[in-house]
Amino acid sequence: xxxxxxxxxxxxxxxxxxxxxxxxxxxxxxxxxxxxxxxxxxxxxxxxxxxxxxxxxxxxxxxxxxxxxxxxxxxxxxxxxxxxxxxxxxxxxxxxxxxxxxxxxxxxxxxxxxxxxxxxxxxxxxxxxxxxxxxxxxxxxxxxxxxxxxxxxxxxxxxxxxxxxxxxxxxxxxxxxxxxxxxxxxxxxxxxxxxxxxxxxxxxxxxxxxxxxxxxxxxxxxxxxxxxxxxxxxxxxxxxxxxxxxxxxxxxxxxxxxxxxxxxxxxxxxxxxxxxxxxxxxxxxxxxxxxxxxxxxxxxxxxxxxxxxxxxxxxxxxxxxxxxxxxxxxxxxxxxxxxxxx
Length: 342
Hints:
Layout: H1 3-8, E1 12-18, H2 24-34, E2 39-46, H3 51-64, E3 72-74, H4 108-118, E4 123-127, H5 132-140, H6 144-147, E5 150-154, E6 161-162, E7 168-169, H7 181-188, E8 194-197, H8 199-202, H9 209-217, H10 221-243, H11 256-263, E9 270-283, E10 292-293, E11 299-307, E12 313-319, H12 321-332
Parallel strand pairs: 1-2, 1-4, 2-3, 4-5, 5-8, 8-12
Antiparallel strand pairs: 6-7, 9-11, 9-12, 10-11
Helix pairs in contact: 2-3, 2-10, 2-11, 4-5, 5-7, 9-10, 9-12
């Protein structure tokens, strides 16, 4: 496909909602979106914790990718119950000391509502972190439920699995839903059209070693930034898991968030199944600040379970992992702008 063909094709319009900065995969998902000519990214919105810092990180990633035309908006930082966590290394490998970075003044929730309501049936929202901004948009303007084209969520666990190094992955440690469980319950029960991509599926999409080597060898600003944050990740991962009570070694560079961005326009990577997903709170025997305290003082976490009821969303259960890694690498190592900018 040449540049002229890319400029005239119909684009998928998305809002990318992210807790960029803690995990590496949010940043490289933003890079992937910036490099994909199939997408018209209306804006990037930030969620959970220090959303000002996260907005600055997102703006810097977009600047590095040559996509300063994509606006960034600060969103909801505090969960509906409890507090947002920051680990202290957010922005490493991306931000420079005392760097002055600006973003839009409009609040992310208002931007989401305005964009969806002004473009009924045209906007997909892709969430890479908590769904706090979407939940608050629903509460402020319930009509977004009927006017959004699709909500694509990366979060939760449907079928607990054991990864290739023997680490059990279950709802116990899933990050995105449990960082604002009430918001997750509101969104999942809203009735809006949802594609749900759980962690047990994204854990079949590691960045292959040969693809990481290709990115490392590509001397463009975004590949150099991606390489820096990939190299920083293993000790950060150990810190995160130790802090939440699940000691583990580094396993792989999982492409959790790039996968859901891909699904916004490329529907052949995932096999989707219509299921009824119900939300419920289950106790956990692991004490950790990330879990919210219920009214009885016990520790809760949000689980999502398939039920034998009429389907309420499409759920990813299978993925072509090697193809995801190749597609991701092809886009990141393409010429800057990939036909999107002059």
